[in-house]
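User: Here's a chain of 197 residues. Predict its fold as tokens.
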Amino acid sequence: METNVLLLRNYGFSDMMIKKIVLRNPNSITQKPEWFKDFLHKVEKDFRVTPDSATFLYGFRALACQKQSTLEKNIGIFKSFGWSDDQIVEMFRKLPHCVTFSEVRIEKALNLYMKELSFEPAYLASRPALLACSMENKVVPRMQVLNILDEKKLERRKLALYPVLMLTESKFIDYFVLPYKDQIPDLHESHKKLVTS
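Assistant: Prediction complete.
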């Protein structure tokens, strides 16, 4: 453990950051130094996250919390949808935990965004927060509201899906649900059921 702590210090980790690793990933800090060093190297070299980056700690935790075989499967899913190595790296550098999602979750998100909505890998790689959104509790319910408004030809804020999904739930309700309570009385209730189901 002392060797691993020293490795972290050599990578520029503060005592506070080391404490976070110990508390959140206690198993990783007790691994063999060779294993530990390999993961630090992987974050820096394979995913091009420099030790002084704010995401280096998150990148290390993302890789250390799963098996190598699981990581390879997840990366393989992105590649099967046409993602390049550079695009996967870009996504990781912005939001490392995207590679820790389950295979089902990754496939579901990519099927929706890429096959149904025709989003390109480059677009998603630069906006990985889209992949982190819950399909069931956020993406699908909000898309349904927008579709209803468009089908009824009601005037609404013309925002792309990304900014719509980045809104807090209360802001989304204020912008896209409450203004139409007279024209579509059950819109709020039906949306609420989808979000909480």
